[in-house]
């Protein structure tokens, strides 16, 4: 391979061509060159976006100072002049706060561009690897030819191989060019809005609480950009929770609400601390509030941090145990989207830990850097806190409509060809997924259950997706395998077995029956399985567990039905398995 690792070029960096053209008033540059893309630095664009978003703190500080000054003036000054001054200060404060959504939007544009650029670079690297394997070279202009330095003479196979490499290069460059043009257009629109006005009031009428996501999407599409920014700035609670509104707008709205949500928890903590001496109930409440506050602080750090992929806050409710929906990566532009539903004890206090599990789905990017994957933590339900709560299906049943709407919203707001959508449930979360699929239907191409106590159905065919797209894994040492259905519990107790032994199935009956129905990882369920190592009930995301690779391959839609899948991080994507029929995945999931 004679193409230099860093080809020299006099061209602008990727992204600059479209920006310069826009500044000159002309159309965006339509082509991104090989050398440009090779030298592009997605991290630099990510950092530039973060710098824009960082200005929101300054805006909030200045707006707060104006509010403080206005209060002081109202105390010491009255009359017509004082009223006029107060109105002027309020206007200045409004102008300042109206800029905040635009700053967040600029950050989003650059972060999304960086993400798509990283995918294009991944595809470019795959094309280069393909050329190396075929004994071809790529020059600094992206031209493909036989490598004169190779030991073997040219052959008839060089032509088709060169065509494949050229097609792979062209696809990578077209993706980068499309990303460049899209980012340039959005930044140009923001620049125009800075002159013409950031916001404009929308017409009356808002989608109701029960509006279908497709209806919400149509309503949003009928608004101008200025009207959308007005809604984000003035009605963030509405925008932030509406399934069907694009992820970018929901994130902007929820980011604007983040400070207020934190203040609610701080005020509650202050109120509890004021009770001296605190009673045992107040002390327990205080610990819970502080735990939720710590979880919120950690979440805020992740949202504002430089980590890749970018985190999108799609929902937040600090009341009760706390609810949160966060996506790592942009689901509206991803090729693959996985929604993870956690189980018992999950809440805002545990959001950082659950988000760490979601981040492990970054394994998808390692396995296939040419695909853009978004992983969502969906904790928009009241998860059980205690065993007696987890022994009933009530909370899972109550969660079904919300999960159904959320998945429908992902479909409605997605841009471009439909993404492959996977919904993954762990422990009690698998029951949430199963009952939502059974009772309401889920916009999903695949369902995955890990550490499941049963999913509320006896057969995979009852879940509304092809049985070949229903997957499950149960670790050999997962305690959930020992649970038995309530009928067995009653029978064992009547026969004189201890209640604990009955619950844990020590009587030896019901091999494939769990608390909430047939084991989805059992042979009689009709789905498909993938292996897990001995990592217990919470170890499915352990880096050493083959289940992590299994989940990633299912999300990507690349897996083997009868044996080890030949794909690895070094193998071309074309060599990966993509078997659709029913089967059982056995053996190793990686090739060494």
Brief description of this entry?
With 592 residues, this protein is α/β, with parallel strands linked by helices. It has 18 helices and twelve strands.
Annotation field: number of helices: 18
Strand order within the widest beta sheet: 3-4-6-5-7-8-9-12
Strand content: 5-15%
Q: Give Rg in angstroms.
A: 27 Å
Poorly predicted spans:
1-13, 16-29, 500-511, 561-592
Instruction: Please state the overall shape, judged from the principal axes of the Cα atoms.
Output: globular
Topology:
Elements: H1 16-23, H2 34-39, H3 42-76, H4 80-133, E1 136-138, E2 144-146, H5 158-196, H6 213-221, H7 225-234, H8 236-241, H9 247-273, H10 280-304, E3 311-317, E4 323-328, E5 336-341, H11 351-359, H12 363-367, E6 373-379, H13 387-390, H14 394-413, E7 420-426, H15 428-439, E8 446-450, E9 470-473, H16 486-494, H17 499-503, E10 513-514, E11 517-518, E12 528-529, H18 546-556
Parallel strand pairs: 5-6, 5-7, 7-8, 8-9, 9-12
Antiparallel strand pairs: 1-2, 3-4, 4-6, 10-11
Helix pairs in contact: 1-5, 3-4, 4-5, 4-7, 4-9, 7-9, 9-10, 14-15
